[in-house]
Amino acid sequence: MNTPENLLGQARELLDHEWDGTEWSAPRMAALLARRAAEAILRTTCEKYCGRVDRVNNRALLIIAVQVLDDGTGVLLERAWCGLSRACHRHAFELAPPESEVRELIGLVERAGHHR
Questions:
Q1: How far apart are the first and last CA of the chain?
Q2: Per-residue model confidence as pLDDT tens digits over 53-101
Q3: What is the DSSP string of 8-33?
Q4: Stretch (H or E) spanning 40
Q5: Among 5, 53, 73, 81, which is most buried by a count of CB atoms within 10 Å?
Q6: How many CB atoms lie within 10 A of CB 75?
Q7: How far apart are CA 71 and CA 62, in angstroms?
């Protein structure tokens, strides 16, 4: 099962492994896995306060989380999700996201997960 913890572990494994191919970006793929973990934490957390949120998009859930969660979890999730979304997005003229930035964002998702 792809729990947030498993997804974050897979993201870290991608960053820890040395890849010799240049056809894809390990930091970008790790960011995608970490963003999926952040989304799972976000949905689980918002469901505790709002009930079913299966038809609510992530941006709306982030607004809810920032307003409802007073322990800083919503702010952590918003910062992590926005940063990871930027890291996942690709333009031909942009370099891959720095590994250190993706690791920092993974750390934010982990901290938000511990606040649940």
A1: 19
A2: 999 999 999 999 999 988 889 999 999 999 999 999 877 777 888 999 9
A3: HHHHHHHHHS-----SS-HHHHHHHH
A4: helix 26-50
A5: 81
A6: 15
A7: 14
